[in-house]
Amino acid sequence: MSENALRIHKKLGETPLEALNRLRFDMPEYEGLPMTYAGRLDPMAEGELLVLVGEECKKKDQYLEMDKEYEFEMLFGFKTDSYDLLGLSSAENFNKEDLISTLAMILEKKKGKFVQKYPPFSSKTINGVPLFQKTKDGEEFDLPEREVKIYEIEFIGFREIKGVELLKEIKRRINLVSGDFRQEEIIKKWEENMQSRGEDIFLIAKSKMICSSGTYVRSLVDSLPFPATTFSIKRTRVF
């Protein structure tokens, strides 16, 4: 890979643009040079972000096709309209025993090629307008889709978290995000759904996968046959 394709760590809560601006500030030697990122990471995701500098920006389309590796966590018992913590939530019941006994098998069956819809809160555009803007504006539209491939997926295990600690962590993560992402409304909804559940025990599962470009971890989690939303995403490799 070219020396003008930089691998940086996008922090949790940052947008890719904020990560790019931080890089410009930290590396003044690149002042005046064109710079862009190749492949987005959502505010609730962290990890490796490719930044192209100078003439390398002209090769962006090539870099966008690179495969990715992720570690991610799934929180069960909730659905959100963004498919992650930064969304309006609803609480739903499920059978914990069924989840524990079948999740590894369900994830294994996700391997291979399939058609995946883009999340309604994503940067994918329709006629030049991002889906997240259309969704916020209340427009009705069919979600676009694309073929993706999961090469490898591994179930790592479950952990438990008490409700009071879960809500505290959710609010901490949301408060890392600046800009207008409906944070106040989202936190209020989480508080409503967690009311009187401070002593309840919730399940979080961890997994890792290698997948093709354009695969959305959030959409994968939302497609599970149990109510789930993405608790965390870390992109560990672009290759």
Mean pLDDT: 96
Assembly type? single chain
From the spread of the alpha carbons, the general shape counts as globular
Helix content: 25-40%
**Uncertain runs with pLDDT below 50, 5 residues or more?**
none
Structural class: alpha+beta
Largest sheet: 8 strands, mixed
Strand content range: 35-45%
Distance, first to last CA: 9 Å
CA-atom Rg in angstroms: 18 Å
The SSE string, one letter per element, is EHEEHEEEHEEEHEHHEHE
Q: Can you count the beta strands?
A: 12
Quick overview of this protein structure:
By secondary structure, the chain is an alpha+beta fold.
Could you walk me through the main structural features you see in this protein, from its secondary elements to its overall organization?
This protein is α+β, with helices and mostly antiparallel strands. Helix content is 27%, strand content 35%. It contains seven helices and twelve strands. Strands 1, 2, 3, 4, 7, 10, 11 and 12 form an eight-stranded mixed β-sheet that branches. A two-stranded antiparallel ribbon has the order 5-6. A two-stranded antiparallel sheet has the order 8-9. Helix 5 runs antiparallel to helix 6. The longest helix is centred in the middle third of the chain and has 13 residues. It starts with a strand and ends with a strand.
SSE layout and pairing:
Elements: E1 5-10, H1 16-26, E2 35-38, E3 45-53, H2 60-64, E4 68-76, E5 78-80, E6 89-91, H3 96-108, E7 112-117, E8 125-126, E9 129-130, H4 131-136, E10 145-162, H5 163-174, H6 183-194, E11 201-211, H7 217-222, E12 228-238
Helix pairs in contact: 5-6
Annotation keywords:
239 residues, globular, alpha+beta, two-stranded antiparallel ribbon, 8-stranded mixed sheet
